[in-house]
Design goal:
This protein is of the alpha+beta class and 72 residues long. Helix content is 47%, strand content 24%. It is built from three helices and three strands; from the N terminus they run βαβαβα.
């Protein structure tokens, strides 16, 4: 069982989606490439915050993801 990326974008949107997904009981992992690049001394202007979930949780999280995408 692996992880799948369900979102890539700004930190603000990623945090909002993460909260909604975790409210339905799905654990998320955030990968913040912007913060990592800054700490490493590199500049990065991409919208590079990503959210990952377990593949088995996709069915539970998908309605939340779709509703979120329609609202932005």
């Amino acid at each position: 069982m692996g992880m799948i990326k369900i979102f890539s974008g700004s930190q603000i949107l990623a945090q909002a989606l993460q909260q909604k997904i975790e409210e339905v009981g799905v654990k998320t992992i955030i990968k913040d490439n912007i913060q990592s690049a800054r700490l490493g001394g590199f500049g990065n202007t991409d919208l590079a915050v990503e959210i990952f979930i377990e593949e088995v949780d996709f069915g539970k999280a998908n309605p939340v993801i779709e509703e979120f995408r329609m609202s932005i």
